[in-house]
Amino acid sequence: MPGTNLIVPVVLWGKYAPTHCVSAVYLSRDQKTLVTGCYDGQICIWAVDPESLKMTPRCLLVGHTAPVTCLSRASIIQDNNFIVSSSEAGEMCTWDLVDGKCRESVKLSQIHTNIQAYHMCNADDLRLFCNGYYAEILVMDPFSLEILFSLSSKMNPDWISALHVLRPSSRKDDVVLAISITGTVKVWSLLGHENKQSEPIYENESKQIRCLNALSLNCCAYNQRTVLIVCAKYCQIYDAGDFSVLCSIQAPTGERWMSGDFLAPDRVLVWSTEGKGYLYRLPANKLRGRVISSSVPDHKGFHGPTVAHDSPVLFGILAHPDNKLLSCPPAMRFVITSVGGKQRRLLLRGDSLGTVSVWNVDDAATPAVGTIPSHAPIVLTSLDMAWAEMNPSPVGILDQLHHPEEPEVKLTASIYLLAANRLVVGREDGSIVIVNATHTVQLQLLHGNHQQLDDWPPHQLLHGHNGRVNCLLYPHHVHPRYDRSHLVSGGIDFAVCLWDLFSGQLLHRFCVHAGEITQLIVPPHNCSPRIQKCICSVASDHSVTLLSLAERKCVTLASRHLFPVVSIKWRPGDDFMVVGCSDGTVYVWQMETGHLDRVLHGMIAEEVLAACDETVADDLGGSLAAGGGGSDLQGAANPAVHFFRGLRHRNLNAMRAATQRGIAALQAPQGGAGAGPLAEPARARRAQLTVQGFRSNPKDPESHILFFDIEGLIVELLSEEYSAMSPGTLEAAGLITSEYMTMAALTQSASPDATKRISGILAKMKEGAETVQTKLQAKAEQLKSHMENKDQSSQGQKKRPADMTLAEPPHTMQIAQILISLLHAWGLDPDLDRVCEAKLGLLRPMVPVCFGVVSRHGHMAVQLPTRLGSVAAGVKDPQLLKSDLPPELLRQEELTRLFSSKLHWELSTTLTTNHLLSIVALANTLMSMSNATFIPEQEFNRRMHRPSTRSSSSWAGDEERAEQLAAQQQHIKQGWSLLATLHCVLLPDKVVAAGAKSFKRPQVEMLARRWQHHCLEVREAAQALLLAELGRLGPKGRKGLVDNWAQYLPLYTHTESINPHAAHKEPAEKAAKAEEEFEEEEEEIVRKPSSLAELKRKQTTAVVLLGVIGAEFGQDITSEGAAGNKRRKDGDSRKSSVVEGFTLSASNNLARLTALALTHLLLSPPCARLPAHTPLRRAAVDLLGRGFTVWEPYLDVSHVLLGLLEMCSDADKLVPSMSYGLPLTAQADSCRTARHALTLIATARPAAFITTMAREVARCAAAQQSGQPSPAYHALQKGRAEVLRGIELLIDRMHNEVAELLVEVMDIILHCVDQSHLKSKGLNEVFPAICRYNQVSHCPATRRIAVGSHTGQLAMYELRAGRCQSLAAHSGPVTACAFSPDGRYLVSYATADNRLSFWQSTAGMFGLGAAQTRCVKCYSTAPMADVARLNPARLARLVWTNSRTVTLMLADGSETRFNV
After folding, report:
1. What are the phi and psi torsion angles at 85 (to 5°)?
2. Residue 416 and residue 402: Cα distance in Å, rounded?
3. pLDDT digit string, tens, across residues 720-730
4. What is the layout of strands, in order, in the sheet containing 459-463?
5. Rounded to two decimals, what is the model's pTM?
6. 1417 neighbors 1398 (Cβ within 8 angstroms)
7. What are the backbone dihedrals phi and psi of residue 1079, each rounded to the nearest 5 degrees, phi first?
């Protein structure tokens, strides 16, 4: 889902503006935004200057697949920038106008023709009243797009053709007036508490009138006594009381009315299909009394016969002076706006040429005497005009092939070959250009030496088509069974050409169609062997063919379709190809024989198509027909090949299909995924760059979108890096650890051949490291051999030299270079910029970049290059002024600099968040790689200087060269680190210092949702950015955040749980960006979540966000001024508690609730709603570890620890350490996070960790004896290795804290280590860490262990009998103890009472009865001076010199001997 994937789209628009044939138009109340929808389904957002109404196109929203019919506002709040759009296909979307994200989208079976947004009496926000091709009126919520309730008809139910909602002046309820297509007027009155559950809501009254097929209905807003109903030929004014006709207006000859509205009680504005507005004055005597709202229609001439002066009089016309004919009716809308308290009445019109015109109705509203003036529009603009104003014009992807003298050849189809890094572009003149993709992008967007070369990058031309190339297909990308060198193209000349990609020769020309080729598709992989070698082509003569690339001939020609082909589905098992046509018929063809099996109509046809879907739903063998060919054809993965809309917006759909499939390269993972933790993620490997051709209309030339997939890019970079390392270096670099395996070995039983077993396990572990290593290498190989098929035979044939060789250094680095250069905030830190250019090899951008945003559901917003039209160029650089650049290039350079330093970060919070995440993640990745720089010579040096491959006989200069390299590497790492710091920490202050008025801060909740992103680098970047942002908010800002999100904390009963699938959806709501904005933001945040899914998303975000704030800033959000903060939480259960931040005060329970929510997430058993390993669970685990000291009072520590152990327990496979960058399987990832959390908990609260574990061990021992092992017992058994690791770590890091709990520690160790190890080896071999304590002694001869405790007790463990006895030995902590070599005596010493005691164990009679241990001798020792200052662990040691003599060595250097 594109939600979690960080994808940065960058658009190269080219010289031609996209066609924008307007079908709907909307202007916001504050006159700042104009929105136009078009017949191709895109929506264009224009920035409007409220004073002059000058409009500049700002961004294009892509998502609808059919003409946009309605646009409506979504909220009453003035600056709430949401808008709802609806299309002819029944799709509805709510868009955020600031960053163009699609907030919500649904597809209804009902298709709307008209939407009125209306604020109902008891509602907190607008409701949408919709009517269309269905018999009800639907009332919808604009944010969740759910149908709240519908209004039905009792009398003559029929489609509603127009409606108007109003609130009568004297009443409290709302009235809906509507007219059906058969001319029945209906009235509903609504009280505001209607909902889905209530009975059907029928009309209160209805009346039949004569208007059939009315287009619009408006009630006079000024006195609510008259109604204007507009039909195509005439419009009529009715009395609102009894619906009698007062007067009517005929349409001018040759025109038809479209709609109209009242300007005053006696003036109306009506507009026609020719795009003109007519102003009429209504006859006063017909309206007498209606102007004064109190009077009644009792005038005696009122219903009398009409006289001449009774008809309406035309007094003004709004029209274009040139009076051009329009190819289709324009979209027009009458709007009333208010800016600065002044009202303006405007008539908007958008026409088929994409021109938007605005008339000021107020100018024309007063009639002039004697003449009928015609008024021209006050503003006139279009995308083409905006494009024409741009000088130099926007960049296209192949601008280097364009000569200024000749007319430009338009690009018509394109496809990107990831593995070869080649862009293949078909053009209008029939030629096909092949060029290195990253180089051509660099040439268009970035400054650098490459700008001086003439013919760079080299390109190859294929000539073979006469006329336009319509579609391209590279079948090998779709399925590896095809030849790597084959490229297929279809043209307007009815031919399908097969090319050899490498040598550029035309292998074959298929001429079987009798119409231009519109589509090329790959059949599914489970067809018969002959069909597997075919591709399927579709042409505009309604024919479909299967062309065999191997046999070079047409296998099947399916050509008797009477209507255009809409969809193609496959039944490989039955050898059927099922073709659906636009009239609903379905043709079933046999593929091998080309025989028409049957033709189906009606319901059966639909069922057959549906059945095809089911058979292949689980079969991912199909393809996405890439490039110009694709509509949302996903071959067999979603074999619904709907492309009758594909013919209209061909590439647009291809693009959406691509975004929806995660923009994957669709490389099915090779072979079964290995069992290790590095098993390939189930999804296909992601393409780090996809170049997608894109056009809004088939007649347009293509623009191109580059999708940079951050995660794919990081994975490729790290794979290349790791594949060059051996397991030894991997371990040395701390990427994989073997300490865990040694621990695991201790928990296995050691039989007599124990040593063999252990060495075997260690060898296995090394082997494990080798397999990790081979997996890493395999991964890297796989990436290098995307193209080379796994069967070597095909490689053998293709080793021919070709002029387009693929033997280039990997292009992953170039892609990273382009992306970082585009995202970096140039100009904020001149010193860093110099480092970037000189050391890191980044290049400055040449043009302001057009970024895009991919949101849920595969919708997308792309910025238009014209959006900077109105910006005044900023700082003048003296060097620039001296240069001899022409003025337009000078301005472009200034704009570019202004953009990358300032405007880039003022676009939207989503863009800021995504771009900062991307650049920080990439900088960290490159920092972790050795010598990662984009400078070519250094790149070369680095490849030459690989320590692993160098022979041992090195020459003299080599040493200093190595030193130089090391120094250089240090510089480079430092450079990346500075780059990451700039974007992570310093950026906001710098941007504001640079003069940005409206810096858009990163969104806290988007970052919170990525807290445990499965790609480690992205995860770390998100965490760093989130903590930096929270730190910047300061205590006050954090407090506000806590208050806003506390209401969404789920209350844990044991039944409800959080929905994890939503955990990573994009944020539902912008959280407040900064403290100052909390006030205005309030309404928006407190708006109740509109749907259940959104509530779940909110809850998951709240848990993570509050968890982070609690864990990292828990102590400082104290209860300052509880009185000032009496905002009660919602939910009666919490009415009593006041939100007071994270404190331990009694009244506060926010920390408690957060802690409960986190533990719930850790411990709740896996279920459908919360699977075992999700990012949400990982986040909970991680936060429990980080904030353990804050949560501890509210946790059941033993439950938490056991839960974590349970998570780590499956990790006997080699899980890489926290710094290993490639994505792991979900399970290995959880394991790694849980292990990290355990380490954090252990080091934060060692005592709690040890006592809790000891308690659990004791419980386990008891349970074992009673023979009823508890679940806790299993968790502990499985997690033994983990516990040992934790204890070893604690002894290492917190020696003294552990010393106080030595007996407990020994309990735990003896439980976790398999006893059999201690038979043959001493404790110091088995678990050396614990033997650093002088208070611990092990006697292998008698198999006993003695531990001196902090309380002066001696604990004696008898391993044979498996029991432990405790002796009161000293009055203070035992400092040291030791067994004599033969095991008969034990000596113990304590500094506290300066006593040294000898103990002897006597067995009972004949070894029966309990062994007695008694004190044989006691010596007083000289007190030690300054005990307090000395390190307690080093105070004293006891060493036996022979079996009867012991030496006491004290810390002051004295030695004393004692005899038994």
Report:
1. -125, 150
2. 21
3. 777 776 666 66
4. 411-417, 422-427, 431-436, 459-463
5. 0.81
6. yes
7. -60, -50
